[in-house]
Amino acid sequence: NQLHVRVGSHQGSYKAWWSEITIEVYGWPSPKKDIQYAGGVVKVVSNSAAHEFHVTIPDNGKGMEVTFEQ
C-alpha cells in the first residue's frame, strides 16, 4: 500500500535551471490527499478516472525520498 520514489542528489558542477520536480504516477490508485517528505507536506493532484496523480515538490539538490500511501 505504499509507493516509494527516490530522487537522487545533483551531480557535477553544473547548476540546475529548475527549482521543482514533478512526480507523475500512472496506473496506481490515488494516494492520500497530502504527502509528507523531508521538506514538508504537499497536496496530491489526482485524476481517479485515469488512475493518474502527480505532486510538485521543491528540489534542493540534495536528493530525497517521497512516499505515497493509499
Outline the structure in words.
Helix content is 0%, strand content 53%. The chain has a three-stranded antiparallel beta sheet with strand order 2-6-5, with no helix packed on it. β3 and β4 (40-43) form a beta hairpin. The termini are close together. It is mostly beta strands and 70 residues long. It is built from no helices and seven strands.
Describe the protein's topology.
Blueprint: E1 2-7, E2 20-26, E3 34-37, E4 40-43, E5 45-47, E6 52-58, E7 64-69
Antiparallel strand pairs: 1-7, 2-6, 3-4, 5-6
The tally of beta strands, per DSSP, is 7
Structural class: mainly beta
| Low-pLDDT segments, ≥5 res | none
Which value, in Å, is the CA radius of gyration?
13 Å
Total helices: the number is 0
Offer a quick outline of the entry:
This protein is an all-beta fold. It contains no helices and seven strands.
Throw out a few tags for this protein.
70 residues, mainly beta, single chain, 7 strands, elongated, three-stranded antiparallel β-sheet, two-stranded antiparallel ribbon
